[in-house]
Design brief:
By secondary structure, the protein is mostly helical. It has 29 helices and no strands. Among the domains are: about 1-80, no CATH class; about 135-230; about 350-490, Lysozyme, CATH 1.10.530.
């Protein structure tokens, strides 16, 4: 099987290999290869065949298809731009929508054209608001309010709202979160007037952060205490606001090491337990090859069906399946043991940087070399194909530790040269340097660091950076630097 994979990149774009891909299990792995096939083939019929076989179709696939004249009009309809507004059927706008930010950039003539052609609905009301520069009615219509808050949280819509009742329901959590995550002071004051006791824990968390933004720590503490099912995050903030030892004890008694529990261990100089040696090489020929993406798929399928995880883990006791074994043991022990393995994948005289590379790899892939994400991030460092190409790498050589870690380390060194701070580098590695400069840095300039971290716009990036920094501390200790701490990074 391994030899077949070595030849696959060379033969991938032949029709025979498209046929061989079509019989592979539907997965993000297959979608990755089909996407690369679509990118390189000169045959519109074969590209369309690959497109139809995709497990999860995305806008990027339609964009690739649009290189063929036959599909250009379809792509313009699916992804209408400002310059196309008068060329496309109005149904394209209704079916696929123009971003409100795009509508905001339309000329008066184009806005009048849209308003005259759109049927009654939130889209037409939105165009009317931009046409007249009047957003006073946004929060008098449920659909319109959600449309603006989620897609266009601009200062233009900021206003005092005395009654949010029409928005309360299944998606109110997203509504509240988007107001809190954006700089909308009047809406923020309006949220503060809500009776927090009526809402669930998820909404209460964002109402808590809203009070913190307004510098109302007393009410913030009350909201936080009322959260029924508290995690380490809530206990950390209860301690931070009250300085009561009982809340920090909750963190110290949590056996799982994370950003908040690690902080508590540092605060009281209590050591934490980790396990990084799990291999004794009792298995000579492992059942899976963790550098083969198809084998990794098979492993996960067996993992889900396995009834005795400890026995399953024993079958992975080999250096070549160390990452897979660590994953199984984690679940087998119900995440009560902190596994921080150190596979032989990267060396650097700068032990701090080496620790950071391992911190990223653990968070990105749990050290599984043949990882493919739903966005087609590749390998142990989960590098996007476009970034691999920009660094002159080969997208098909990302499934072992060699080139993938080399490229990942190269990218990290560049990010450190631009941002310096390990926390900011983590945000940039996940969300991009543009996102970090435009959306993250301003938060750290406006709020204290812990609050700024909770207000990072994207859910994934917000939690990702905390996890990477915790990993970084732990791997620094493993590799010999006992002085690095969350306190030294954040203060």
């Amino acid at each position: 099987m391994k030899k077949l994979l070595l030849f696959l990149p060379l033969l991938l774009f032949a029709e025979l290999n498209l046929s061989s891909l079509l019989v592979k299990p539907k997965s993000y792995v297959r979608d990755f290869y089909l996407t690369e096939f679509m990118r390189e083939t000169n045959s519109s019929s074969l590209a369309f065949k690959a497109y139809n076989a995709l497990y999860k179709k995305k806008m990027k696939h339609l964009k690739i298809l649009s290189k063929f004249d036959f599909f250009k009009d379809a792509y313009v309809c699916i992804n209408p731009s400002i310059k196309d507004i008068r060329k496309i059927d109005i149904s394209c706008v209704l079916d696929n929508g123009l971003w409100l930010r795009s509508i905001a950039r339309l000329s008066k003539k184009d806005l009048k054209y849209l308003y005259g052609n759109l049927p009654e609905g939130k889209e037409r009301k939105a165009v009317f608001a931009f046409l007249n520069n009047d957003f006073s009615n946004v929060f008098k219509d449920r659909d319109l309010g959600y449309y603006f808050v989620i897609n266009y949280p601009s200062k233009k819509i900021d206003q005092i709202v005395n009654n949010f009742s029409i928005f309360e329901g299944k998606y109110f959590y997203f509504f509240v979160k988007n107001i809190v995550l954006n700089d909308l002071p009047l809406l923020s004051i309006s949220l503060s007037k809500l009776n927090y006791k009526r809402f669930n824990d998820k909404i209460k968390w964002w109402l808590f952060l809203n009070e913190m933004k307004l510098n109302r720590s007393k009410k913030a503490f009350e909201i936080l205490k009322s959260i029924r099912y508290k995690t380490s995050k809530e206990y950390f903030w209860l301690w931070k606001l009250s300085k009561k030892r009982k809340y920090l004890d909750k963190l110290l008694n949590n056996r799982r090491i994370n950003f908040y529990t690690l902080y508590a261990h540092e605060e009281y100089n209590v050591s934490f337990e980790i396990k990084n040696k799990i291999i004794t090489n009792t298995i000579k020929s492992p059942k899976y090859d963790q550098t083969d993406p198809w084998d990794v798929l098979r492993f996960f399928d067996d993992f889900k069906r396995s009834k005795n995880l400890f026995e399953f883990a024993k079958k992975l006791d080999n250096e070549k399946t160390e990452a897979l074994k660590a994953l199984v043991l984690d679940k087998a022990n119900k995440f009560r043991i902190n596994y921080f393995i150190t596979p032989k994948m990267y060396e650097d005289k700068n032990l701090s940087f080496k620790a950071y590379v391992y911190a990223i790899a653990r968070q990105e892939s749990r050290f599984i070399p043949a990882s493919v994400s739903k966005s087609y991030a590749l390998g142990v460092m989960q590098i996007m194909p476009f970034l691999v190409r920009s660094m002159k790498g080969n997208v098909f050589k990302q499934f072992d530790y060699g080139e993938n870690v080399k490229l990942g380390a190269k990218h990290l060194k560049w990010l450190f040269s631009q941002l310096k701070n390990p926390l900011l580098v983590a945000y940039a590695y996940n969300g991009g340097i543009g996102f970090t400069r435009k959306r993250v840095l301003p938060l750290f300039k406006k709020y204290e660091k812990f609050l700024a971290m909770e207000l990072v716009p994207y859910d994934e990036s917000r939690e990702y950076a905390k996890k990477v920094i915790a990993n970084y501390i732990i791997y620094s200790h493993i590799f010999g630097d006992k002085n690095l701490s969350l306190h030294s990074i954040l203060y």
